[in-house]
């Protein structure tokens, strides 16, 4: 399976997992052995023979973003139309206040620290970032989980640039609604 196949299926599957498995995925250590729930997902979705650490981080972060709800009522986790950078800015909230004094949920200073992290520390920074928005986001607004995977699987600067463009595009649209 390719990343294009894996991420939407994984996102859908996480929403239907028993709460205990989700909790196990959220608690797993990225540099650790991986939780049993992780290994079941790795086998089922074809990343069993991929490098373990980035996939542990991806599943952990996606599990953190999966709303705590009754099984089968987790809302939407993944949507290609809602970039991670936008969600960091507005918290994944449809009612986020715009205007001249709009304050991003994840501050510009925090974003600057996140994008400055070396690749080998990006997973921990990204985990902290999504924890800030996980409980705030509307459960029916999915986030582009490809952004998460790409940031953790590749050191290509275009992924950080995409994150930054989406964040600042959303912030600028909120603070300058008429393009002034």
From TrEMBL:
Q: What Gene3D superfamilies is this protein classified in?
A: CRISPR-associated protein Cse2
Its name, as the record gives it, is CRISPR-associated protein Cse2
Recorded superkingdom: Bacteria
